[in-house]
Structure formats: C-alpha cells, structure tokens
Amino acid sequence: MVRTSNVSGTFIASKNRLAEGPTYDARTHRFYWVDITNNQINWIEYDDPETIHRVKTNHPVGVIALTSQPNKLLVGAKLGFGFVDLTTPIETAEIDYVLKVHTEEPDASELRFNDGYVDAKGRFYAGSMVDLGFEEKPIGKLYCFDFSKNTANVVETGLTVPNGMGWSPDNKIMYHTDSPRSTIYQYDYDLETGAMTNRRVFVKVNFEGVAVPEPDGLCVSQDGSVWTAIFSTSTVQRYSPQGELLEEITFPAPRVTCPALVGPNYNELVVTSMSLYNERPNYHELAKTEQGEGGNLFKTVLDGVVGIPRNLVNID
Fold first, then answer.
1. Which residue spans traverse the membrane (predicted)?
2. 3-state class of 237 per DSSP?
C-alpha cells in the first residue's frame, strides 16, 4: 500500500522562476539552490530561512557541487564547468570557467547544463539539455568532469532533459533520469573507474491524470530509497531499491522540481519548485496571483529516514 501525505506551508518564500539544485553543506550549515531562469545562486544559513542571499551570475547555472573549499562552488553552467566563490558577500559574479564544452557543439547556443551530482570519488556528473525557448530535441549529453585532469568525458548521448541522478548507499548502482521519457534508469557502477554499464529501466513513472509524467530531480536515502519530484505535479514519489512505489508526498506547488534530504540530521526533505509563469516577461506581477506557492521551497521532517551527505570535489 502506498503511503500518502500532504505538506502545507512554505519553508523558504523565494518566489523563484525555476528553483533547482537544493544542496546542504554540513560544514557551514549553508543551504544552496539555484534559480536557473533568473541566473541566480541562492542560499540561506539553515537556521535563518527568512534571510535569502542571492548572487546574479553572467550565465544560467543548472547545478552546483560542493568542493573541498567551503563556500567555493563548482557549477555546471551555460558553457561548461566553472567556479563561483561565495566566501565573501557579493551581488554579482562572473563564472570562472575551467572547462568549456558547449563551444565545441554544433548547437552550442541552444544548450546549457541542467542537473548533476558528485560521486564518492569526487567526479562531477552533469547533463546538458536544450535551453528553454528552443525546440526540445534529444541532443543533450551526460558528462563526467574530473577536476584533477581537467577533462569532461561524454558518458551518455541522445538525451532530451537529463535530470536527477544519484548512487545507491554502497555506490554500486547509479541512477539517472531522462524526464520526457518518464524514466529513471540505473547502471552498474564501478566507483574506482567511474564505468557505467548495463543500463536498464529502474522506474517508468506513472501518475494518474498525467499523460507524460516527468520525473525531475532525485535523491537517495541511506536505506536505498529513491526520491523523485514529478515535475508536472505537486508530488514527490519514493521508490524502494527494487522500484516499488512506497510513498507519495504532496506539496503546495503545481510544479515541484527536486528533493533533497538535508539538515543537521539529514532527515528533513526539502523540495524546490517552479513558478507557472516561468517564461513570461511580466512574471513578478503574475506570480502574485498564482495559485499555490510555485517558485518557493518546502520542507517536511521524515521519521526513520536519513539522507546521504553530499560528496565533495577536491580542488586543493
């Protein structure tokens, strides 16, 4: 039997256009997320959710990774991989690219990086996709960026919207999502080499009343459960390691985007969301009348569930 619950109220009233990438750093107790459409990196001190810090970047940032230097973030952005240093307060930042990959693509102007994750050896996986406003087509790629070698190897091609990824607690299985295919895939994963083999369907998402449900961001808990936000709904689903639907949690936003298990005890499920008026120029006025709390972040404390701390990219 699938367990269901509802969450009311807002954790962070950010009113972003497209909030994604929730990331908690236990070293500093900072909680980061991005607003892709607004070219913003946001963060709070975790115990002070009402004070939102925002940095405007010169290019959209799809995903952030924690590094061995607290407050210095490695990002997957419009053109590739680079740094944004938030050690000191700033309002705007130029992304310090260390490796540009989209300049070599035939459709470079259409592409940007979307979701990603760091494995237990510090490899930064991130997927590229056609940006909003362009025709959707399967020209995205999944890259594995190794900072120590300054290389980004292509490990998957033909992706439309590469999205949530993560690893099983023993790092033997890797998960990766292609949203328009309603599918979360899994691979056998060799942590020592980074080899991904034997791709197969982990879950083909079904959602009542939605013809093509889109699994978006995901996270994995210590019991091996996979938590995924179903973008075209208000719901986060939890699956067992065998792909059985265990739980559905509904939030007060029509388009949830990514879940993360965060906080001092890693038992707080925080979920980002998107505004329905994401692509419209008069967004700020329209957002005032939006039904639900699209663009805000939400939180619920879970019983008996513990998340896995974020891995770091070693840049020292």
1. none
2. strand
**In whole angstroms, what is the distance from residue 215 CA to residue 233 CA?**
10
What are the distances in angstroms from CA 50 to CA 11, 12, 20, 45, 296? 9, 7, 18, 9, 12
Looking at residue 221, its amino acid is S
280 assigned binding-site residue:
no
Q: Is 216 a catalytic residue?
A: yes
- Is residue 126 a contact partner of residue 62, using CB atoms and an 8 Å limit? yes
DSSP collapsed to 3 states, 107-153: CHHHEEEEEEEECCCCCEEEEEEECCCCCCCCCEEEEEEECCCCEEE
216 marked as binding residue: yes
Q: How many CB atoms lie within 10 A of CB 239?
A: 22
Q: What is the pLDDT of residues 146-161, one digit of tens each?
A: 999 999 999 999 998 9
Each residue of 256-280: pLDDT tens digit? 999 999 999 999 999 999 987 665 5
pTM: 0.94
The verdict on whether residue 114 carries a ligand-binding annotation is yes
Reading the block at residue 142, the tokens are 């999944």
Task: Flag whether 296 is marked binding.
Answer: no
Question: Which class does domain 3-301 fall in?
Answer: mainly beta
Residue 130 clears pLDDT 90, i.e. is over it: no
Separation between Cα atoms, residue 128 and residue 310, nearest integer Å: 21
According to the annotation, is 163 in a ligand binding site?
yes
